[in-house]
Specification:
The complex is a heterodimer of chains A (about 625) and B (about 425).
Chain A (H helix, E strand, L loop, with lengths): L13 E5 L3 H13 L3 E5 L2 H10 L4 E5 L7 H10 L9 E6 L2 H5 L2 H6 L2 E4 L4 H9 L4 H7 L13 H5 L2 H5 L6 H4 L4 H22 L4 E4 L16 E4 L10 H4 L8 E3 L10 E2 L9 H16 L2 H4 L4 H12 L5 E3 L7 E3 L5 H13 L3 E11 L8 E6 L8 E9 L4 E4 H4 E2 L2 E2 L15 E2 L3 E5 L5 E2 L3 E6 L5 E3 L4 E10 L1 H9 L18 H17 L3 E8 L2 H8 L1 H18 L5 E3 L5 E6 L3 H16 L8 E6 L6
Parallel strand pairs in A: 1-2, 1-3, 3-4, 4-5, 6-7, 7-8, 8-9
Antiparallel strand pairs in A: 10-11, 12-23, 13-21, 14-15, 14-18, 14-19, 16-17, 19-20, 21-22, 24-26, 24-27, 25-26
Helix pairs in contact in A: 2-3, 13-15, 15-16, 20-21, 21-22
Chain B lengths: L1 H12 L3 H7 L1 H6 L1 H13 L17 E7 L6 H9 L7 E7 L5 H10 L5 E5 L5 H11 L4 E5 L3 E3 L3 H6 L7 E10 L6 H23 L10 E5 H6 L9 H11 L3 E12 L5 H22 L13 H32 L3 H26 L11 H27 L10 H6 L3
Parallel strand pairs in B: 1-2, 1-4, 2-3, 6-8
Antiparallel strand pairs in B: 4-7, 5-8, 6-7
Helix pairs in contact in B: 4-9, 4-14, 9-14, 9-15, 12-15, 13-14, 13-15, 14-15
The chains are: A alpha/beta (about 625), B alpha/beta (about 425).
């Protein structure tokens, strides 16, 4: 199955495609040849490995699932048999099974780049040409076992499924101990291993930073429970969290302790076995994510993300002093402080955040820092090398000068009239303090207050230095309503059906009903069920209680309605589709249905039912 | 009444030269000589248009020192006026002497804006002398120009007042002081005329005979080494007269610079005016005849004929004249009865004519001052000065001589008064 096209193309890049699907093979080969690459094709792992050993390739496009040997094994076996330092091809995984590939970080490290299926040919070309930034970051990452350290010989046999099943054995940090940098990082990371295994033992689906955050991954927070941070990080490193959908709504479990109040759980300070704090945090986040309006859940807008984060984490955006920050305060978020403050101010202006004054800080015009040394200084040369001296006034001869002019041992002798000053307030007094500059000799009765920026050295006088006010922010009622109701709140208050909010199952059923209505004129009624007491119940009994009661209500409703009617659970609202019932008829019986379905419930959900008919969908 | 005037005129016109002298002996003795000196001065100095003096031999750095107590109102104006000089000062030193009116804050602002170079503020008032001494100690110039906070200056004033220091014998130079508020009332207008006659013209005349004895505190320049040599100012009041006398005694020449013009506000009300004048006269008496009385003693090492001249001049034309005037009035009434007012009127008329002539001379000798509009006031001034001021001086001298009144002047703080020697 090995095609041969040995000549190098004009583009100078030779590519091996290891792919078992004939369709994909042909497609890739066609597209890449057209673009001037020299392309070889291998149909299974073994032939790919032998081709690799025979020819020098620039890039290997490898399906993760290959017959005989999988992509991981091929790459590992190839690298194991080669000397370090020689020209190595870049391994690019193409796979639909992202989860399987990402099951362990080692996999990501084996491949230089991962491209999800279905692929975009332009993206693949970019990756091949290495102009997607992956090459650079790859070369810089000292822990990347793929380029730096060959796995130990034993790993050759153990590679593959066994490695995938036993993730610890194949962590790059352990196997990549050859390079010094790797060893150092491995030591740090090993300290976290215990915590990590504990967290994994909780059965949580976690996304790990930085391991799972390769540029190629297209992770979203939708199917995850938490993000685990296993290397020292700050807002700049964690910027991905705010750039990809829904990641910002996951709790941050900090193994390093470096995030401080920016994270949600500081696992480095957890006592052994105290994992239940993690579970509780994850559960609380999950509950509150459920309450978040779907459109806001997926929003791309930074301000809305911040609101969502504050809501889901159930924490105000609090500013605290932090001398390690140039801005002198930090917020309890992984968003960069300046961005957080900017967004929060906008949100405050539009009434979503309430603010509490923390402090007024001075700001350097030049570098933006708020770290200053404030001192008294010479009004002339701005040196702070000052000394205080008293003025002394000899009443009798009107001589008035500094005290040192009068000092003769322990006596005070007037330099003008040579008399001894013997009695304070009778002979003389001290009408004030003179400040003398040791640097330039200037003397004045009062020094200036001067500010030196500790970050850039700029100098400011007290009356010209800029200030800024720092606030903490909390969600307003308006924000809470907005977060739970969505953007509809801001426009018209009245309830309208939005397809984006309907569950897929309902859309399919609605489509069918509409088609039937068009063809035969058969009516239908859609009941839109909302729960007015949701927040009250949650506040009083907890989210779980509410969910259970809601489930129970839906079960009962299914019993109350006919068999052909469909009850569908949605995100915030639930629905029932009644076939062959005209909306007016349905409206007539809504009250009865409601009473019957809620009769057995202990808690009052505050059920409200709106009825929609075919005409609402025209 | 008409009869009386007619009789009086008939009587006066009927007198021979000798009997007129007998009749007007007071005026001839105490008034005419002064005018004679003024006319001599005017004759000596031809009227001149202003010629800025070329900067003479190097005189070094010029420091301007300003000391004030609660002068927040005018400090900025004063500093700006100094910065506007054709010869900008090398340094301006301000001292706030225990001010409580925001002057320290204002001075710091001026300092920050670069309008002044040194600012010293004391928390306790120590008196003008102490404040000036502090400023003088901190000032770095070779020539120290002392000005009052409420003064403003002609653009050429500084250049003109420091020019004489090219002559190494000169220890201090007195500036020409004009009144800036003559329109503020009759008292202010009279003072304008008085300043013009006694300072602008009077000191030019005095300079002819080396008799400039008071470098005004409002605008005077000192050679630093001279000032240091005599130990700076002594406790006030009248510290300007005192320092000048001591400088003269130390052998320094004192100069008057008529073109170094400075404008100052004079007290416009009778109340303030009288307080100021009583104080000045008392201080003059105290300084001249208590502190510096040895200037007149032939046995004193400080005795000097030149100094004796101005001491005697003061005794004769100020003290004796003031003391003799009541006797002259009584003598007139006793001797001439009903004719006395007429004689007095005639004398006053004569003096007014002389005053008019003097004022015209002074105005002519000080062309930069716009004095002519005040000419009509000279008649009033003549009466004011000839009758009223004479009694006024007499009161001050009696206060001082009998009650040592200057020792309780509020011009200097109580703590200083207790220890003041003179």
């Amino acid at each position: 199955m090995l095609g041969t096209q040995p000549e190098r193309s004009a583009r100078g890049r030779r590519i091996l495609i290891a792919e078992d699907s004939g369709v994909t093979q042909d497609l890739l080969k066609l597209l890449l040849s057209e673009r001037g690459y020299a392309v070889d094709v291998a149909g299974d792992g073994e032939s790919a490995l032998s081709a690799l050993r025979r020819n020098a390739y620039d890039v290997v496009l490898m399906d993760f699932h290959l017959p005989k040997m999988d992509g991981l094994q091929v790459a590992a076996a190839y690298r194991c048999g080669r000397e370090e330092g020689g020209r190595q091809p870049r391994f690019i995984a193409i796979t639909a099974d992202m989860k399987g590939l990402l099951a362990h970080a080692g996999n990501c490290e084996t491949f230089d780049r991962v491209v999800p299926k279905p692929f975009d040919i332009n993206e693949i070309c970019k990756v091949i040409d290495g102009d997607d930034g992956a090459q650079a970051s790859h070369d810089e990452a000292p822990s990347a076992g793929g380029t730096v350290a060959p796995p130990p010989p034993a790993a050759e046999q153990a590679a593959g499924d066994a490695a995938a099943r036993e993730p610890k054995a194949a962590t790059p940090h352990r196997s990549g101990g050859a390079a010094n940098g790797s060893r150092r990082i491995a030591a740090v990371v090993n300290g976290h291993t215990r915590l990590l295994s504990e967290i994994e033992a909780l059965g949580l689906r976690v996304l790990r930073w930085p391991e799972d955050f390769s540029p190629a991954m297209s992770a979203s927070g939708a199917d995850r429970d938490a993000i685990v941070v296993s290397r020292r990080a700050g807002p700049r490193e964690l910027v991905d969290i705010w750039q990809r959908p829904t990641l910002h709504l996951l709790p941050l479990i900090d193994l390093t302790g470096s995030l401080g109040s920016r994270g949600d759980v500081d696992a480095s300070r957890l006592a052994y076995g105290e994992g239940d704090l993690i579970t509780r945090t994850v559960q609380a986040f999950r509950d509150r994510r459920e309450r978040l309006d779907r459109a806001l859940l997926l929003t791309e807008e930074l301000g809305e993300k911040l609101l969502g984060r504050m809501f889901v984490a159930n924490r105000a955006l609090t500013a605290t002093y932090d001398p390690s920050q140039p801005g002198l305060v930090r917020y309890n978020t992984t968003l960069e402080d300046a961005a957080a403050m900017r967004e929060a101010e906008l949100l405050h202006e539009s009434g979503f955040l309430r603010r509490d004054f923390l402090d007024r800080l001075h700001v350097c015009d030049r570098c933006g820092s708020s770290r200053f040394n404030v001192r008294e200084e010479c009004p002339d040369c701005h040196s702070s090398n000052l000394a205080d001296e008293s003025y002394l006034h000899h009443f009798k001869c009107a001589y008035q000068g500094v005290e040192s002019d009068f000092r003769r041992g322990d006596l005070l002798i007037c330099p003008k009239c040579r008399q001894e000053l013997s009695h304070f307030s009778v002979d003389y007094d001290k009408p004030g303090i003179m400040v003398k500059c040791r640097a330039c000799g200037h003397a004045a009765s009062e020094p200036e207050a001067g500010f030196i920026c500790l970050d850039c050295g700029a100098h400011y006088l007290a009356d010209v230095i800029q200030t800024r006010d720092v606030y903490s922010y909390a969600l307003t009622d308006r924000a809470l309503a907005y977060l739970e109701t969505g953007r509809a709140l801001l426009g018209h208050r009245q309830r309208a059906l939005r397809f984006a909010e309907l569950p897929l199952e309902l859309i399919v059923a609605l489509n069918a009903a509409l088609r039937r209505h068009d063809e035969t004129g058969a009516p239908f009624a859609l009941l839109d069920i909302s729960y007015h007491n949701e927040r009250d119940i949650e506040a009083e009994h907890g989210r779980r209680q509410f969910n259970q009661t809601r489930e129970l209500f839906l079960e009962t409703l299914r019993g109350v309605l006919r068999k052909e009617d469909k009850v569908v659970k949605g995100q915030r609202y639930d629905f029932a589709l009644l076939s062959d019932v005209a909306p007016p008829e349905a409206r007539g019986s809504v009250e009865a249905i409601k009473q019957e379905a809620t009769a057995t419930l202990r808690l009052d959900l505050g059920v409200a039912i709106d009825v929609f008919g075919p005409e609402d969908f025209s | 009444m008409v009869e009386v005037v007619g009789d009086g005129l008939a009587y006066l016109t009927g007198q021979s030269g000798t009997s007129l002298v007998a009749l007007f002996w007071f005026m001839l003795l105490f008034e005419v000589p002064r005018y004679a000196l003024a006319f001599a001065a005017a004759a000596f100095f031809a009227p001149k248009t202003f010629v800025p003096p070329p900067r003479p031999a190097p005189i070094g750095r010029v420091s301007v020192i300003v000391a004030g107590h609660n002068e927040a109102c005018c400090a900025e104006n004063c500093a700006r006026s100094l910065r506007e000089q054709s010869l900008p000062p090398d340094e301006i030193v301000f001292v706030s002497d225990g001010s409580t009116d925001g002057m320290p804050a204002l001075l710091r602002v001026l300092k920050r804006r670069g309008l002044v170079d040194q600012v010293h503020c004391t928390d306790l008032r120590g008196g003008k002398s102490a404040a000036i001494n502090l400023a003088e100690l901190r000032a770095t110039g070779e020539v120290i120009v002392n000005v009052d906070c409420d003064c403003t200056f002609d653009r050429q004033a500084l250049k003109t007042i420091v020019a004489p220091f090219g002559d190494p014998r000169i220890g201090a130079v007195c500036g020409n002081i004009l009144v800036s508020n003559p329109t503020q009332g009759l008292i202010a207008a009279f003072q304008y005329i008085e300043y013009l006659i006694s300072i602008s013209l009077g000191k030019q005349a005095a300079q002819l005979v080396n008799q400039v004895v008071c470098v005004s505190g409002a605008f005077g320049a000192f050679r630093r080494s001279a000032l240091k040599g005599v130990g700076g100012l002594d406790v006030g009041g009248g510290e300007d007269l005192d320092i000048t006398l001591r400088l003269r005694n130390a052998g320094w020449d004192i100069h008057f610079a008529p073109d170094a013009i400075c404008y100052t506000d004079v007290p416009p009300t009778m109340m303030e005016f009288s307080q100021q004048r009583l104080r000045w006269e008392r201080d003059a008496l105290r300084l001249r005849f208590r502190k510096h009385r040895d200037l007149m003693s032939p046995l004193s090492p400080r005795f000097n004929l030149i100094e004796l001249v101005h001491q005697l001049e003061f005794i004769i034309f100020n003290i004796v004249a003031a003391a003799a005037f009541p006797f002259y009035l009584v003598w007139l009434v006793v001797m001439y009865g009903e004719l006395a007012p007429m004689i007095l009127l005639a004398a006053q008329t004569g003096l007014a004519v002389l005053d008019l002539a003097t004022f015209a001379l002074a105005a002519w000798a000080t062309p930069k001052a716009r004095s002519l509009p005040l000419l009509p006031y000279v008649l009033g001034y003549s009466v004011f000065n000839g009758l009223f001021m004479r009694f006024f001086r007499l009161a001050a001298y009696l206060q001082e001589w009998l009650f040592d009144a200057s020792s309780t002047d509020s011009y200097i703080p109580g703590k200083v008064q207790l220890l003041r020697r003179w």
